[in-house]
Automatic annotation (TrEMBL):
This is SAM-dependent methyltransferase. The keyword Methyltransferase applies. It comes from Haloferula luteola. The lineage of its organism: Bacteria, Pseudomonadati, Verrucomicrobiota, Verrucomicrobiia, Verrucomicrobiales. Keywords: Methyltransferase, Transferase. It comes from the Bacteria. One of its GO terms (biological process) is methylation. GO terms for molecular function: methyltransferase activity. Residues 36-127 form the Methyltransferase domain.
Length: 252
């Protein structure tokens, strides 16, 4: 299981914070309580929902990300219920009315089918499941060089430090597996900190994802492309959001 640590956790929000905005609106409208966000990270979605009074807990497999979440929560006067664990094996001893798996977290699961089956154990009967996944179009269509380092993101932090991440990838189009290496750098006048990480991402066609959900005991209620209800979900969609509901009884 992929885990964010060190600079990867620290710089994640600096590089990708703006990408959460569409999902916050969707989750707020769909949320059924009590809820669990799987892959809550530093709390970029979780904390705004708690500020709105939502009963939602967070799960992440990175202690570093959870530490950032606790610090941000403290700054906001919040005390979130946070769990450290793997989404494929997490056993809280209770069930939830809704599960939210945003920001492509599901694609980090080593066994997607088994992970969806485990989600059933976390849900109450007729519980709601929200999933967002992406299709790595740039890598698929060779718009990014394979097996070569390229600048992925760079930004300046509020304190003046310069942050960057370079990425190198390999892609297996037949198996639909993308393997990435990341090189994070954080530079200030005293020098540069560096961190290397690896990530394995699986992607799915719309039909394949719906079949996975059905086989796991879910009924798909809605499917949206690129966070736009007007766009049809088809093979050209880059971001898929699916809302499904359990049609089997949860297993204790």
């Amino acid at each position: 299981m992929n885990t964010y640590t060190s600079l990867e956790a620290l710089l994640h929000d600096a590089f990708w914070a703006d990408e959460d905005t569409p999902e916050l609106h969707w989750i707020e409208n769909l949320l059924e309580e009590p809820a669990l966000e799987i892959g809550c990270g530093s709390g970029r979605l979780l904390l705004p929902l708690l500020q709105k009074g939502c009963r939602i807990e967070g799960l992440d497999n990175s202690e570093d990300m959870l530490a950032l979440c606790r610090q941000s929560a403290s700054d906001c006067g919040l005390e979130p219920v946070l769990h450290h664990g793997d989404m494929s094996r997490f056993a809280p001893g209770k069930t939830y009315a809704s599960l939210f798996v945003p920001a492509f977290t599901f694609q980090l699961a080593e066994d997607p089918a088994a992970t969806l089956a485990h989600f059933q154990k976390l849900l109450q009967p007729a519980g709601l499941l929200y999933l967002t996944v992406f299709i790595p179009m740039a890598e698929i269509h060779r718009e990014l060089p394979e097996n070569e380092w390229y600048l992925d993101h760079e930004t300046s932090l509020p304190d003046g430090r310069r942050a960057s991440v370079h990425t190198r990838h390999q892609i297996d189009r037949k198996a639909r597996i993308l393997r990435r290496e990341h090189h994070y750098s954080l530079t200030d006048p005293t020098g540069t900190q560096e961190h290397f990480s690896e990530q394995t991402v699986r992607w799915f066609t719309p039909r394949q994802l719906q079949r996975l959900l059905t086989d796991a005991g879910f009924s798909v209620e809605n499917a949206v492309a690129d966070f736009d209800e007007e766009l049809p979900v088809d093979e050209d969609s880059q971001i898929l959001t699916l809302v499904a509901r359990s049609f089997v009884e949860s297993v204790e």
